[in-house]
Amino acid sequence: MNDATLTAAQRALPTPDRVCAAPEWERVEFISDLHLRPEDPDTASAWLHYLEHGRFDALFILGDLFELWFGDDMLQRPNATPDSTLLQRSVAALAAASARAPIYLMHGNRDFLLGSAFAETSGVRLIADPCVLEYAGQRWLLSHGDAWCLEDRSYQSFRQMVRAPDWQRGFLARPLAEREALARMARHTSESQRSVGSGSGSGNGSTTGAAQAAGPDYADLDAVTVCDWLRATACQTLIHGHTHRPGLHDLGLGLQRLVLSDWCGLSQPPRREVLRLDRLGQFSRLSPEQATAQTPAVPPPTAQPPAAHMAAAQAAAAPLPRPAA
After folding, report:
1. What is the DSSP letter of 15?
2. Can you say how many angstroms the Cα of residue 284 is from the centroid of all Cα atoms in its chain?
3. Of 228, 224, 64, 55, the residue nearest 141 (C-alpha)
4. Between helices 223-232 and 307-316, what is the axis angle to 10°?
């Protein structure tokens, strides 16, 4: 679908970022929530292997590639610590992979300060949240997902603060070491609060044990807001991460929400998943090993809702105010 097929009312709405697939794209892949950090070397190793041997024609990273990002000047630190070593290896791998196929990167709630210097060095293309992908004769709505977890009011207040340009300018003006300390303190506090709230841990912010392996207890996305966005953008499917709860949710009227897995080598069994979308509009969930194999053992594609459902959903779409981000 292109803009000419949208109603005049829909065209008048503020529109998100948009990516139009190239005609030669056969395989588009999506990943999110890798939370790269030295404490999880298995995830880092799987990530680097996937980038080197990936068979995608385009890759979309939907947020939280890094566990923490406190400014692009992290790129200038000497390669003398596990953090900086992993960063430099990741940037080099991204640059090599993006020379073969386009890689699109969306900010997450952990790495929202990734900026133009990182994009230029790594070769990725930064995209806004949300973003519409036009591929396989459909429009796909892409998001990290955290902006629509409306029940987590304390996080939404925090998000509004740290996404403000004035706050970011002030934070980035601080010395790098101070920013790092503040970011790690904020993460420790957040993990402690979530551990206490979910009853899954002691609340001490530990990065080991059952609570860490299970992942944070994020609120889920607000279904009404998701449907509003899908209708406003004439999309059938939302693809997002953030919640660490992979699944497919039928929202009615031919609309659906497709949730990506996080990557965690510390869990048992490890969690790692690539979502592959083909030019017929069918998707498959693959391990990184399947995604990089020359003749991957691909599970049967998951069928999409009938095209008639999509037409009905578009016909029912009414002018809607753009939901608050």
Report:
1. -
2. 17
3. 228
4. 90
